[in-house]
Design goal:
about 270 residues, D-Maltodextrin-Binding Protein, domain 2, two-stranded antiparallel ribbon, 10 strands, globular
Length: about 270
Amino acid sequence: MHAMTAVVIGALVRGAGVALFTFALGAGSVAMAGERLYLFTQNYPPLHASTTGKGFAHSADDIEGVCSDMVKAILARAGYDYVMKMRAWSYAFERGQGSENHGVFCTARTDEREDLFQWVGPLMSLRWTLFAAPGSSITLASLEDARGMRIAGYKGDVMSEYLLERGFNMTMGAFGAVNARRLVLDQADLWVADAVMGPMVARSEYGIEGLRPVLEFKETPLYLSMSKETSPEIVAGLQRALDAARHSGQLGALVQLSRAEPDRETD
C-alpha cells in the first residue's frame, strides 16, 4: 500500500475500527436474515481503499475506508451474510444492477439514477468541486467559466458524467486518484472531485499538497444502492440498520474521523 494511503486509512481505522464495529455486532443487532448480499465498490481512498495497495480486492477483509466501514457496520447490524469486492467503478456500477441481492456503494443518488436502484441511506454527502494545480492562476465565477478547459475525471463517476453530458471538455480514465498527478503534470487544467476527499487522495497517493479548490458547484448524497431485483424486505432491513447506526452516533463518528486529515508521513 502507498505510504500516504496507509496514513489516511490508519487514522480512520485506529479511531473507529474495533470499538465501533464491536458495538455494531452487539446490542441493537437484528436477527440473522439468512441472505447473502453481493456488494461492489471502487478504490477511492479514504472512502474505499484496498489494504493491499492494489486497485482491486476480492474480499471484505481487503477493503477499508470510511464509506466501506459504514456499510460493514450496517450489514453487521442487519445480520446479512455478504461478499464484498473492489473493482473499477464502471464495472462495479454495472454489477450492482440486474441481479437479486446485488448492490454497489457509495453511489451518488441523482435523478438520472433514481429508477436504477433501491436506495439505502444517505450515508454521507459528495461535494462536487473543481480543483486546479498548486500555484495555478485559474479562477472561476461559475461553472460556465470552465467550458473549454481540460477537466480530468473518470468513467462512471457521477460528477464526470454530469460535465461530459453538458459538453465540457472531459478526459476520462478508469480511476480517479491519478487525476491529481495529471494536474501537476499539466495534462489537465482542472480535476473534478469531492471537496474533502480530493485533497486527501492527492496527498495519500502522490504526496501532492496545496490543490486549489476553484469552484464548488453541487452536492449530492451518497447511498448503498441495491438492485431492483432485491427483495424490498431486505432493503428495508438495511435501512433500519442504517437508521440505528446513525441514531447511535456510529456513522457520525466515522465521518468526523474521515475529515480529520492526518499529518503526512515522512521517510
